[in-house]
Amino acid sequence: MLIDSKSKNNKPSWAEDKLSQIPTMVSDISRKISEYRQSYRELVRDAEVFFEEYPQDYRRLTVLKHKVNTYQDQIEFIENYRKEKGKYPSIKGQPSAQRYMARLVAQQTNSDNELRALEDKLRVQSNKRYEHLDHLTDYMLNLLNGERTFSQFLGTIALSTPSPKEKVRHIRNERYKPIYITALTIALFEELRLKSTFETPFLKEELNKLFPQGEHFSLMVDKGISDDASNHTFKPMPADIKMAYRENLLKPIAKAALLQSIGMHSPEANQILGDDRYRKLNQSERTKLLAIIEKKTADYLKLGVGIPTIKYTSKEHKDTFVTHERRQLAFMLKMLESLKAERHELGDLLRIPMTYASFLLSTKEDFDYQQIYRAYDILDQGRVDKQYRAEHVNAFLKMVGRFPLGSGLYVIQQESGQIEKAIVSSLYPVDVDEPICKIITRRQIQFLSQAEFIISKKSNLFFQECRIESQYDLEFFHLRYKNEFTWNATDVWENQVPAIEFWKRDDKRRYNGVFNPDSY
User: Fold this and answer.
1) Bridge partners for 410 per DSSP
2) Per-residue pLDDT of the chain (520 residues; tens, 9 = 90+)
3) Closest by alpha carbon to 61, among 14, 119, 7, 134?
4) What distance in Å separates the CA atoms of residue 202 and residue 181, rounded to the nearest whole number?
5) pTM
6) Which of 3, 81, 58 lies closest to 408 in space, CA to CA?
7) What are phi and psi of 13, to 5 degrees?
8) Alpha-carbon distances, residue 88 vs 69, 70, 84, 102, 440 (angstroms)
9) Which candidate, 347, 386, 396, places its Cα nearest to that of 154?
10) Are 388 and 379 in contact (CB under 8 A)?
């Protein structure tokens, strides 16, 4: 099929058991991403109901608690008076204190029953939300295990986005964006954990408990992957440490990332957004919207999800569980609150992936696909301008490279000198300017193999140096490519490039260097 022309359109068994749910087949990952998106959509729909109902529910809760306490105070006053004086007090406007006392008891009982029913309803709802959110994060962390599945997860989302002209692009990207941000946040945290320290007490304490000194375990290590330039100094994480890491650290981080924009689905936010939620807001609208999102997201986390109610086996069990959940909840709220602060280690952990995702999964009306290649430079400039912490940006950009996962490049193939199409297929390039790709054509005809290539800077048409030093005339590039030396890989995804074939790869990466005409 011709696709040469430019696109137009010692480990505990419980840990092993849980980790065995991690998908290994490409088709499994694609299917699970679709299921995950649907499950997240269900969470959003439930959040919309919560935002509609919770103000009235919690006002009613406050009123009922006040009534019960007021009745109780009156009953205790009358009872204490009778015990001290040996008779009931005279109550203004009440011919019989005893009958008044009986009415108070009946009213208190009714209000108490209403209160218990409302509390039970809210408890059941929050438990369901907690369980749904917990399953969602479990589901995602099963997908985000090792560099290979991380790359497939993020790449599949990026390559599945609709083209800029498709009407469904805004809706699809809005639904995918929190999932994409969460995956990037987890990956960034893992990078920072390996290379720097944290000041946040919660992170310091948990990391010190989890990882022994001198042991270099990484969530991203894949067995058997090699290339000439890599030097793996980290070892795969044992199952017991991995599960504790997931439960105690990655889950609260993932939950905060997944919920960072949930407040956008509140009636107050919808009132500002109006009929077109994807339009460009003025500064006043944007400021109001951000304040609403912050407030409503915190309410959802505290009141809509909160701390689950479970059956405890002992007082010690209850104390341990509640303390653990309170610490995690406080950390998640702190993480979301930190979004307002520049260069905060928790805020930037979220803000950098959010900025990156705004390019890769844009919901703007005037979106141009070429803008995704600016994401690297925008974040790097943010580092220079001190908008973000330098160590956070450096770790993130080294992880994603200059060319986003799933993006399309034109490459001069080292062996033939032909210009071929390539798609970025892996995170963690050794050099940010030399992406890891699958070259998907041979002599400009579709050709898929399991080989991955590190694309040298001098063989990538994106760089002027490559074009100047190549065997092609500059006029040829101008006429053929119209100064666009990248291409939209989403246009060929699945209909010409099947995911199950594209994501297959062997365990060796080749280096695509400079073509030598004399050796051809």
Assistant:
1) 421
2) 334 444 444 444 444 444 444 444 455 677 778 888 889 999 999 999 999 999 999 999 999 999 999 999 999 999 999 899 898 888 888 888 889 999 999 999 999 999 999 999 999 999 999 999 999 999 888 877 788 888 999 999 999 888 777 767 878 888 889 999 999 999 999 999 988 889 999 999 999 999 877 678 888 886 445 444 444 578 888 889 999 999 999 999 999 999 999 999 999 999 999 888 888 889 999 999 999 999 999 999 999 999 999 888 999 999 999 999 999 999 999 999 999 998 999 999 999 999 999 999 988 777 788 899 999 999 999 999 999 999 999 999 999 999 999 999 999 999 999 999 999 999 999 999 999 999 999 988 889 899 999 999 999 999 999 999 999 999 999 899 988 999 999 999 988 998 888 998 888 899 999 998 876 6
3) 119
4) 22
5) 0.88
6) 3
7) -65, -35
8) 21, 19, 10, 12, 92
9) 396
10) yes
Q: Which 3 state secondary structure label does DSSP give 94?
A: strand
Query: What size, in residues, is the chain?
Result: 520
Residue 159, both tokens: 């390559």
CB 407 within 8 Å of CB 372: yes
Residues 371, 375, 376, 378: is their CA dihedral positive or negative?
positive
Angle at 439 between CA 437 and CA 445, to 5 degrees: 160
Q: Which amino acid appears at position 171 of this protein? A: I
Task: Provide the token pair at 121.
Answer: 């309803």
Give the SS3 label for residue 490.
helix
**Tokens describing residue 210:** 């989890």
Q: What share of the chain is helix, strand, coil (3-state, %, to 5)?
A: 60, 10, 30
Three-class DSSP category at 216? coil
Query: What is the C-alpha R_g of the chain?
Result: 29
Tokens 């992957």 — which residue?
225
Instruction: DSSP letter for 189, please.
Output: H
d(CA 430, CA 418): 25
The rounded distance, in Å, linking the Cα atoms of 364 and 495 is 26
Determine contact, residues 108/72, Cβ cutoff 8 Å: yes
492: nearest Cα among 431, 442, 432, 440:
440
How many Å is the maximal CA-CA distance in the chain?
Answer: 116
8 Å CB contact between 486 and 410 = yes
Please give the Cα distance from 441 to 507 (Å, whole number): 20
3-state secondary structure 380-432: HHHHHCCCCCHHHHHHHHHHHCCCCCCCEEEEECCCCCCEEEEEEEECCCCCC
Closest CA to 6 of 446, 491, 457, 369: 491
In degrees, rounded to 5, the angle at the alpha carbon of residue 213 between the alpha carbons of residues 211 and 218 is 45
Residue 350 has φ and ψ, to the nearest 5°, of: -100, -40
